[in-house]
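Weekly puzzle thread! Below is a chain. First person to post its structure in token form gets bragging rights.
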Amino acid sequence: MSGPPASDAIWAALPIPAFVIVPRDGDEIIVECNPAAELFMSMSAAHLKRSLAFEHLRIDAPMAKAVQRARTNRAAIFINDAEVRTGNRAPVLCNLQLAPMHDTEDGLLLLVAPRDVAGRLGRARAINAASKSAIGMAEMLAHEIKNPLAGISGAAQLLAMGLNPDDRELTDLIVAETRRIVTLLDQVEQFGDQRPPDRRATNIHDVLERARRLASVGFAAHMRFEDDYDPSLPNALADPDQLLQVILNLLKNASQVQPSGGKIAIRTYFERGLQVQGLDDRRVLLPLHIEIIDDGPGVPLEIADNVFEPFVSGRENGTGLGLALVSKIVAAHEGWIDVASRPGHTVFRVSLPIAPVKPAKARDNAATPKERR
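Winning reply:
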């Protein structure tokens, strides 16, 4: 095959990964791929061409049968909601299409369409807007509710001083439950905080190490930590304090689902290709990725699609605000958070933009008078 299946302009402009595959010695070989495919695979076209298609694209679907049917029937084959793995990354849910090429007998066009990140972001924004009024009302009431709760707790403690141990059990229960409600109200107030992030150049590994130290001597002391950092990552455009809160919440979530202990892995890597619609409707590239991986029971299926919504929790007595707050902070950073989960392997991935690098002249002008002298 001498060139792409259509004009160079159309081929390059395709917004989804596209491959041309042909059979060779019982395998499928990639002979062409577009720029979107290079981004999706994090590999150059030169590296992908002449390589085994389904060695790089590990698809959870009967691809051999689909390929055979497409060639035999000379008709397009559609496969929806297939998990696609590339490299050692978490699987991506995609819709696939195989279509025979008209200019070659055995060539097939393979289109790999990741489920619409922008669409999910829009849905997340809709969910956030729908819940905003409820959260705002709860936030306004939280302070007023705390005052009578403090009175109830204080009265119960005074009563306990004159009771025998058996009756004191009931007053202790009142105090414990009022404290639990106050904790929930604190989280509601925290979720309702509209303070925008103070985004600046941030070393994400410094934030991750600080979060790990805090977790390992506190709520996650029973967990075993591993890390796999890419030391070459550039700085992220992030508020370091809010990013620390995101990581701490994710570490706490991973540790709470395994009260008897387990492993938490923290991984960072650079990967182009992910982009979302920014707060001012521009496209924002998110090449910096942080993954928090645990070997717990996984996200319950009944809440998997709504795990970042307020008041959705898979734990008994869970408030359902921890992951909602994480999602809110990440969205305010024009970032993206996603989860891939199965029993024994759950991955929360936070994707962030790169901090812009100041030109050398701007850095010189920013120096103090003393430094310039």
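Puzzle host: Confirmed. Bonus trivia for everyone else. The chain has a mean pLDDT of 80.
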